[in-house]
Amino acid sequence: MPVELFRHIVKKESSSYFQTFTPSSDLTSVIEYFFLYTIKSSQKEELAFADGIPILAFLVKKPSAIQFHTATDTLATITEGYLSGFFLEKTYIEPLYPNQQMLGVRFKATGLYNLLRKPLSTLAGQIFHDVDTLFGGNKPVLNESFTITEKINAIENWIREQLKDHIVSTSLFEEIISYICTNQSEINLRELAVRFKVNYKWIERKFLVYIGLTPKEFIRLQRFLPCLFELQETNGIDLMGLAINHGFYDQNHFIKEFKRFTQKTPLQFLKQG
């Protein structure tokens, strides 16, 4: 997903470019919310990111196409619906048409697992997953003439068909996810296990099954996003302070992690916009 989208998600900010919609009451255990995100006409290439919580996105304004690429290679071009990869590094996304609209399903942490009913670790390691392939050719029909409300209704009906009343109770895992998201820079996995009275190995197994990541990978994603946004807001005037405040050992640790995600140093990233 475009990293700018996560600015709205993390900061819970609505704008003319980002609106959220509450799911029907029978789907709130699976879906956190729907969103409509308009990619600004001025936006060119930007960092592609995933925060570990599954998002299913549909490009709903024709013509539509977005391209994933690295510094040297084009990876894929998407024209309809896709599930973002769970852990992206050194990947960029570029809209091929101006003012494209993305209608997204922001799942609860375990929502996609309930939809697919298989360990999400089986999907790990890919940049994206095409909706057609993911669901065996069964995808929601979103006619271009539909209003946004009608498109959301169509997606909800499709999700109900996939669920077939088969929802696994995962409230404890959702609590753990919520705690990590609130305390990204202060997480110790052993302390986490003690706090929630579970075995560390249980946490590790559930992460791989429910979201396809290890706990450490998920914590890295959650720590990096607010750090990136603060870097942009402060224009990198205090990298050491930024690093320490977000749980990195020191400035070098932060820069190394930053380059793993973006292939650039923080100052290079700011300079290139």
Automatic annotation (TrEMBL):
Residues in HTH araC/xylS-type domain copies: 174-272
Highest taxon, organism lineage: Bacteria
Keywords on record: DNA-binding, Transcription, Transcription regulation
PROSITE patterns assigned: HTH_ARAC_FAMILY_2
PANTHER family documented for this protein: HTH-TYPE TRANSCRIPTIONAL ACTIVATOR RHAS, HTH-TYPE TRANSCRIPTIONAL ACTIVATOR RHAS-RELATED
Protein's name in the database: Helix-turn-helix domain-containing protein
Organism per entry: Xanthocytophaga flava
